[in-house]
Amino acid sequence: MPRQTPPGRLADVAHAACQVFIDKGYRRALLTDVAAELGLSHALLYRCAQSKEALFELALRYAINPDEVTSVEVPVPTPAPGRFLQLVREWAADQARFPVLDAAVEDHGDSSTSENVAGEVAGIVGECYAFIERARPLLALIERSAPDLPELYEFYYTRLRRSYLTRLTDYLRARIGAGALRPVPEVGAAARFVVESVAWFAWHRVGDPDSAEITDELARQTVSDLLVAALLPPGGNGA
């Protein structure tokens, strides 16, 4: 019969699995790596998860919602094919929403409908920042492991990440065409610059010893202020 393991122990296993898959990627990660991270024997780890696939499902569920794994019955069974993609799809449908950007794109670039383009850009940057900051453990797990999992790779990079970049590119092109934002050498590259700037401050700076003095609030404010200033026309205020 399935049984429950102490919630703290299962959370520890899920956390360790997350770290191992992020460090090594899906293909290179082994159950023995997770066991070593926890100081457990291989046999004891099997009491929590039946296989490497089960451990990866546990890691995904932990990265999506750490509190959710405390009620998982053990041993976690080997998931059916497509389970990883299902979990990420469900998470994306619930969390990967960008209403500020969507509303701005719907304006079709008519600058007369936007009373404050500076505020509009700040809102777009802010919601992107909040998403990445909130989801960074899951994003790290997906990006490191997706190259070994083709269905997950295709969904994350093609349908999720590139879709966002396309919408942001459309927004920038429309606002540049309306004269509300300054011209750039290539609009797609500018969209990528925005996203990567946000990602560094919201995600990649964490753990960087040279960035320890940058608080979350300072990081959020800095990236927003600098991106807004970079995109507005010279001498413009976005009005």
What does this entry look like structurally?
The protein is an all-alpha fold and 239 residues long. The protein has 2 domains: 65 residues, Arc Repressor Mutant, subunit A (Orthogonal Bundle); 149 residues, Tetracycline Repressor, domain 2 (Orthogonal Bundle). Helices cover 67% and strands 0% of the residues. It has 10 helices and no strands. α1 packs across α2 and α9 runs antiparallel to α10. The protein is elongated and about 65 Å long. The N and C termini lie far apart (65 Å). The N terminus is likely disordered.
List keywords for this structure.
Arc Repressor Mutant, subunit A; disordered N terminus; 10 helices; mainly alpha; 239 residues; single chain; Tetracycline Repressor, domain 2; 2 domains
User: What class would the helix/strand composition place it in?
Assistant: mainly alpha
Shape, per Cα inertia axes: elongated
Terminal CA distance reads 65 Å
The major β-sheet equals: none
Helicity, as a percent range:
55-70%
Q: What Rg do the Cα atoms give?
A: 21 Å
How many strands appear in the DSSP assignment?
A: 0
Query: Residue-averaged pLDDT, rounded?
Result: 91
CATH superfamily descriptor of the largest domain: Tetracycline Repressor, domain 2
Q: Output the CATH topology of the largest domain.
A: Tetracycline Repressor, domain 2
Number of individual domains: 2
Strand content: under 5%
What is the element string, with H for helices and E for strands? HHHHHHHHHH
Any low-confidence stretches, pLDDT <50, length ≥5? 1-7
What is the CATH first-level class name of the largest domain? Mainly Alpha
- Count the DSSP helices: 10
What's the CATH architecture of the largest domain?
Orthogonal Bundle
